[in-house]
Amino acid sequence: MLQAGSLLCFDKLVEEGTDPAYAEKTDSVRLGNHHRSTETGRITLMMDRLSNPAETACLCAF
């Protein structure tokens, strides 16, 4: 789904006259930010499901 959205966004930017190299960089940054926020959200949700002692043990492991 992200890949399809990325292609549509790139095509739209180029269609509007944006330089293809700039459109590629813009889309790459946007996708990277989305990936990081999704990953962070998943980790937060997993940690929220742990009991306090288990969460402490997990944090101490790192």
UniProtKB/TrEMBL annotation:
This enzyme's EC code(s): 1.1.1.86
Uppermost EC category: oxidoreductase
Names of required cofactors: Mg(2+)
Keyword annotations from UniProtKB, A to Z: Amino-acid biosynthesis, Branched-chain amino acid biosynthesis, Isomerase, Oxidoreductase, Repeat
Listed GO biological process terms: isoleucine biosynthetic process; L-valine biosynthetic process
Span of domain KARI C-terminal knotted: 1-62
Catalyzed reactions per annotation: (2R)-2,3-dihydroxy-3-methylbutanoate + NADP(+) = (2S)-2-acetolactate + NADPH + H(+)
Keyword Iron: no
GO MF: isomerase activity; ketol-acid reductoisomerase activity
Family: Belongs to the ketol-acid reductoisomerase family.
Record protein name field: Ketol-acid reductoisomerase (NADP(+))
Organism encoding this protein: Escherichia coli
